[in-house]
Design a protein that fits this description.
- The chain is of the alpha+beta class and 366 residues long.
- It contains 7 helices and 21 strands.
- It has a 6-stranded antiparallel β-barrel. The protein has a 4-stranded antiparallel beta sheet with strand order 2-9-11-10, with helices on one face.
- Helix 1 packs antiparallel against helix 6.
- The longest helix is centred in the N-terminal third of the chain and has 22 residues, at 2-23.
Length: 366
Amino acid sequence: MKLNLLLAAILTGSLLLTTAEQAHAQVRLESICSVHGHKEMRLTGMGLVVGLNGTGDGGDAGPTIRALAAAMRAMHAPVLDPRELRDADNVAIVLIDATIPKTGLHKGQRLDCYVSSYLGAKSLRGGRLLVTPLQSADMRTQALIGTCSGSLVIEDPTTPTKARIPDGVILETDLFKRSEYLNQIVDTSTGEPKIRLLLNESHSSFITARMITELVNQAFEFESFDQQHATPVSPSIIDVTIPKTWRSTPVEFIAEVMDLKINSPHSLSRVQVNSKTGVVIVSGDVELSPVLINHPNLQINIGPNPVIFDGAQFRSLSDEQSVRTTSRLDQLVKALNELGVPREAMIEVLRELSRSGKLHAIYEEN
């Protein structure tokens, strides 16, 4: 009974979502694509955590002892013999990473960072990170981006070798400066400046690329009557030449492009199944071909004629009669639900439909 109510609620929710989607069919481009070069920046570093309660790497960890000796030498407390640190089990060497958002930050601003034990530390609880320099994850750039330090916060008690430092990073330079930022997002190698739109994975297709190309060209056709500004390069890439009137304000042009609205963007039909939880997610136009399902506990004939399941009617059209709809798979799930089919059997049916080629969608299971 609980399973029936759960699936009924899911189906009811899907119908409400479908109605809302039809009412608000327009989607901004910024929701389905991004601009090449407009990306986050990862910062990395390696440092020492001190103050641990005997849960550090231990005196046998050579890298930790050498790093601690170097840190003490920098603080004018040189170690003459590394064996002097053999009992330093309250120190651990850690890897540090932080992420600067796409919008960039300025000198003096702070952000969180995460630390992870690198060697044999059992726990980082109660530790404090010594001041550590951070650099870009891009190995070609060795400039100092920021420094980090502070008390560690264990977020997951089951993994005490990982921790977070709230506002632990302070930036030492401005990210991103206007000139540097424009060089990242505007390509001038061909003579005419252009930007590159990258479609999200869920919307990457030849159909969507064509729809966006037509949309952009139509929006800016008054800028040049003999030039098409947008050109599709692949199912996920569209190049857009910046019109002459916008070349002094490329950021404003990008804002205009990303604010354009596309009607019902195409997305690949997809069925995602979590075999552990029994959750099934259906997106796109999922269709079924005529097929006979013969399960040990049930038999279903999906064809051009309606089939009755204890008062529940299910209809699947043949290829000649096919009309695009997103309800056919939902109707099958509803029929299986009304028959009281267990989740395991329902997933088996979906799996075999995919294997036989009768389920016209990308099938993913984990």
